[in-house]
Specification:
This protein has 155 residues and is of the alpha+beta class. It has two domains: 75 residues, Beta-grasp domain (Ubiquitin-like (UB roll), Roll); 66 residues, DNA polymerase, domain 1. 34% of the residues lie in helices and 15% in strands. The protein has five helices and five strands. A hairpin with a 2-residue loop joins strand 3 and strand 4. The longest helix is centred in the C-terminal third of the chain and has 16 residues. The structure holds FE2/S2 (inorganic) cluster (2 copies). The site of one FE2/S2 (inorganic) cluster (FES) has 12 residues, from loops.
Amino acid sequence: MSISLNINGEDRLYHGDPRTSLLDVLRDTYRMTGAKSVCSAGFCGACTVHVDGVAVPACLRPVGLLDGAAITTIEGAAPLDTLSALQAAFAEHDVVQCGMCFPGMVMSLTAFLRDAPAPSRAKVKTAMVGNLCRCTGYERIIDAVMSLQDSESAA
Ligand code: FES
Ligand code: FES
């Protein structure tokens, strides 16, 4: 079966089993290993990508249901060799430890901030509920997100 995908702005024609998860297609076929395979069951959020602009766990999406979809992965979150404002804030706040949660966290929060550019701290916490981090305790991540508002109001 052939499935048309647009991944990070590039058209791709996937030939294979339509039951294969989008996560496996990204990682195994296209060697985009930014989305992480951790629980493979929709619990951890480490595999989060955007499908038609919506943050979803790629491990739960059979690729056969995605014909014609636009996919954005962490590799497409910012132009090559640059960081998005959120990624830069993560770096400034020393958010990343082991890094397994980081790509999914960025993708979930990027979609959230697009729709809610000036969220409260409580709303940021709620937005992160689908992304588990075993290392950081979350506070630095929230600090990083909140700092985006500080830098915008200072500009
Ligand atoms: S690997 Fe997809 S939610 Fe955990
Ligand atoms: S930095 Fe290790 S799981 Fe989040």
